[in-house]
Recover the amino acids of this structure.
């Protein structure tokens, strides 16, 4: 196993982690921003009003992007196993 292979593997790992978390975190941030604007406009400062919509948005994001995330993780796992079986070349 060469140093170049390990660096390439770490790079691929970080890129895969970024791409699989991006849809869920992006939707969570967008919902949080909308709820914050609503709370500022109505002066309602209820903690559950901020938490519940984010949770629902993250669940919807997982239902929509779940197959894509699973495909990305599966392809990364296959690539990792094939690379390790080849001796990290």
């Amino acid at each position: 196993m060469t140093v170049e292979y390990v660096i390439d593997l770490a790079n691929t790992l970080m890129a895969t982690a970024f791409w699989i978390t991006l849809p869920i975190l992006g939707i969570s941030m967008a919902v949080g921003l909308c709820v914050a604007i609503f709370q500022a406009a109505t002066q309602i400062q209820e903690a559950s009003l901020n938490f519940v919509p984010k949770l629902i948005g993250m669940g919807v994001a997982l239902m929509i992007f779940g197959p894509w995330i699973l495909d990305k993780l599966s392809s990364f796992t296959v690539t990792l196993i094939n690379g390790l079986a080849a001796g990290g070349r």
